[in-house]
Write a structure and sequence with these properties.
Immunoglobulin-like, mainly beta, four-stranded antiparallel β-sheet, 2 domains, globular, 36 strands, five-stranded mixed β-sheet, Neuraminidase, single chain, 491 residues
Length: 491
């Protein structure tokens, strides 16, 4: 009997350990390695894009805000090789990267100066650049995938019309169509292609404040509401398809400030809350492994941390990847051939592009240089040290509708567009316009709240003063806003 009890206890202990291992995928030798990709660049967002090649080496596209150039970084096994794709303007604040069957990079990106959607492809060591869509103000919230013929499919938001747009290269020209135009729809869009190269799109309906999903069915788009109507959920979306072609979507629930996950089971949507500790779940990126299990990288706004969640078949396992400073915005994740995650992300406290991968070995963290070559008086802090910092970088950017505003007569008006390019909400946004030659009024007086990525505008109305005649006059703009802790409700 004693031998039997001893055996039973051993068996029970073994089964518990086996179950625990299956649940959590225990491997005490797995740790994160964190690298600095481009220490000379200023990285603030709006997004990054990363893919892995056949050797599991990362390739990353991003905007360098020190000169607003579009850059491309490639790891060769020992160092980062960094190239400028296009410069001399404002390129890549929205960007999406893909590698074709020959591992040539393709990049879809936004031209902020001309408000155009552009596309670059590298062939024979040279970048070939095209303008895909130049109609109005278009080309933000970009997501791109390459099909079985290496042709690009791009989904994006048309700011001017507030529509969701889709462009694909057919081998000789771009075919462009509107996916949905009912209200303000298409922000935070993400695309995936199924086995037949059919586009599947997840996106945010700003008018209905909900998450939507669209799939091309012949010549028409089948559109579904995934989340709850008017629940303000569906921003920071990312989509992936499983082996059956069913969509899986990670997204942010703005009402409850949670990370959420939706999957289609063939007949209905299954919704889950993955992380609800504090304000968490922005800047998501989802990938499915070989067993169709989801892995999600995301930003913890409360703790300013990069987090990673994976479903192992039983429960969600959540861990912090990086917590030094304000890190984890604009995540882009892929899984390597072993199923280990690789994540590109922004250190928003230091404006640095970082890269983390899970691999066997000890934890390693590359340090940010104490002095970086981009530092300028208006960009640097009062001191340069190696201690982690949580800063409040510039979030609201002014984008005048036309820098050469023409008036006929003594009165006129124009719009000044603003955008929240930060990672956090901003409150009580006001625009101040000044020119001694005009009496100026600005409407509205303030915008109570702007979420990350949101764009809005002020209308500036002008009346020429009696003592001034016709001519050219300069005008100064200034924007003020408050963070969450400073915000005071105005009625």
């Amino acid at each position: 009997m004693d031998n039997y009890l001893c055996f039973y206890k051993r068996l029970k202990k073994y089964l518990f350990f086996t179950f625990f291992t299956l649940l959590f995928g225990c491997n005490s030798n797995l740790n994160w390695q964190i690298k600095i990709v481009d220490s000379d660049a200023i990285i603030k967002g709006n997004n990054l894009s990363m893919v892995l090649d056949s050797k599991d080496y990362p390739h990353i596209s991003y905007c360098d805000w020190s000169d607003y150039s579009l850059k491309y970084a490639r790891w060769d096994g020992s160092k980062w090789n960094i190239e400028v794709v296009e410069s001399g303007g404002n390129f890549g604040t929205y960007v999406s990267l893909g590698l074709d069957s020959k591992e040539n990079p393709h990049i879809a990106y936004f031209d902020w100066i001309n408000y155009d959607l552009k596309y670059a492809k590298k062939e024979n060591s040279k970048w070939k650049i095209q303008t895909v869509d130049r109609e109005g103000y278009t080309g933000t919230y970009i997501s791109m995938k390459l099909d079985s013929k290496d042709f690009p499919h791009i989904v994006y938001f048309d700011w001017g019309k507030q529509d969701l747009r889709y462009a694909r290269w057919n081998g000789s020209k771009w075919e462009i169509q509107t996916v949905e135009e009912d209200g303000s729809v298409g922000m935070c869009c993400s695309i995936a292609l199924d086995a037949k190269d059919t586009p599947n799109i997840a996106y945010y309906d700003f008018s209905k404040k909900t998450l939507k999903y669209a799939k091309l069915n012949g010549s028409k788009w089948d559109i579904q509401i995934v989340g709850l109507k008017n629940n303000n959920e569906g921003t920071f979306t990312s989509i992936a398809l499983d082996s059956k072609g069913y969509p899986h979507i990670s997204y942010y629930d703005y009402t409850n400030m949670d990370l959420k996950y939706a999957r289609w089971n063939g007949s209905k949507w299954i919704l889950q809350t993955i992380d609800s500790e504090g304000e968490v779940g922005m800047h998501t990126s989802i990938v499915l492994d070989k067993k169709d299990r989801p892995h999600i990288s995301y930003y913890d706004y409360t703790k300013y941390e990069l987090k990673y969640a994976r479903f192992n078949g039983f429960i969600w396992n959540i861990q912090t990847v990086d917590s030094k400073g304000d890190v984890g915005a604009y995540t882009s994740m892929k899984l390597d051939s072993k199923g280990y995650p690789h994540i590109a992300y922004c250190d928003y406290g230091r404006y640095v592009l970082k890269y983390a991968r899970l691999r066997e070995g000890k934890r390693e963290e590359e340090q940010i240089p104490l002095i970086r070559s981009f530092v300028k008086p208006d960009e640097s802090s009062s001191s340069l040290d190696s201690s982690p910092q949580v800063s409040n970088p510039q979030q609201i950017y002014v984008v005048p509708e036309d820098s050469n505003i023409k008036m006929f007569g003594k009165k006129g008006e124009f719009r000044v567009y603003i955008e929240n390019r930060g990672t956090r909400d901003t409150f009580n946004v006001s625009l101040y316009a000044f020119c001694p030659a005009f009496d100026i009024t600005v409407e509205p007086k303030f915008i109570k709240r702007m979420v990350p990525g949101e764009r809005s505008y002020f209308t500036v109305k002008l009346t020429l003063k009696e003592e001034f005649g016709s001519g050219k006059y300069g005008m100064n703009f200034n924007v003020s806003s408050q963070n969450k802790s400073e915000a005071v409700c105005r009625e």
